[in-house]
């Protein structure tokens, strides 16, 4: 990789990291001028990076309207949760669990803590396809997970239970806990979408 390619890749990762941080909410338009000033680059590399993120499905673009985070709907969120659940259950079925999962820096436990659990499961599967697929769906869900979660969820017991099943290398318990985790979210889709837009006009 050339020096120029390395610089572009670093810029891409920085922009993507900011996009996934949750500061840019679903439906929000990106300010290209501000991104250029923030990263001290011209519009051309920023536009190239944003188009790349459109290709990954993390951004949407419309002629004369720029780039923006795709809006989240009940249906799109249902599809994402179902997709993620299917992948992670396949990873457990086909790959098993890591023999000694490391401690995760999950204090305080939050909604996005699930990403650390899923990452461990993906690594334990030894399957690069599952790892890539879980990373992809987690990226799509990142903005939702980083907005205020619905008060209907008891996050700490949920995530702690998943970690306990991981540490005990108990795939059956882990499958049961994951299914309950996704069932709770699928039963509260409207609340989760409302949280994503709380205080903002849709």
Structural class: mainly alpha
**Could you give a short account of the major beta sheet?**
2 strands, antiparallel
Any idea what the shape is?
globular
Total strands: the figure is 2
Q: What is the average per-residue confidence, as pLDDT, rounded to a whole number?
A: 83
Unreliable spans: none
Your description of this structure?
With 202 residues, this protein is mainly α. It has nine helices and two strands; from the N terminus they run H-H-H-E-E-H-H-H-H-H-H. It has helices at 3-20, 32-39, 43-55, 74-95, 114-125, 128-145, 155-167, 171-186, 189-196, and strands spanning 60-62, 66-68. A hairpin with a 3-residue loop joins strand 1 and strand 2 (66-68). Helix 4 (74-95) packs antiparallel against helix 8 (171-186). The longest helix is centred in the middle third of the chain and has 22 residues, at 74-95. It is globular.
Spell out the key features of this protein.
202 residues, mainly alpha, 63% helix
């Amino acid at each position: 990789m050339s020096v120029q390619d390395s610089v572009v890749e670093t810029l891409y990762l920085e922009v993507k990291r900011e996009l996934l941080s949750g500061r840019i909410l679903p439906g929000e338009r990106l300010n290209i001028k501000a991104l250029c000033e923030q990263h001290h680059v011209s519009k051309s590399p920023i536009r190239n990076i944003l188009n790349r993120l459109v290709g990954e499905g993390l951004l949407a673009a419309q002629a004369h309207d720029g780039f923006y985070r795709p809006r989240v709907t009940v249906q799109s969120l249902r599809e994402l949760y179902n997709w993620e659940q299917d992948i992670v259950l396949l990873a457990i079925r086909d790959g098993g669990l890591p023999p000694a999962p490391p401690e995760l820096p999950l204090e305080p436990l939050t909604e996005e803590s699930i990403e650390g659990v899923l990452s461990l499961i993906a690594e334990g599967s030894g399957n690069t396809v599952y790892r890539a697929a879980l990373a992809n769906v987690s990226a799509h869900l990142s903005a939702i997970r980083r907005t205020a979660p619905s008060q209907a969820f008891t996050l700490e017991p949920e995530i702690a239970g998943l970690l306990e099943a991981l540490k005990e290398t108990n795939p059956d318990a882990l499958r049961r806990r994951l299914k309950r985790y996704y069932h709770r979210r699928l039963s509260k889709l409207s609340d989760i979408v409302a949280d994503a837009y709380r205080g903002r006009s849709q």
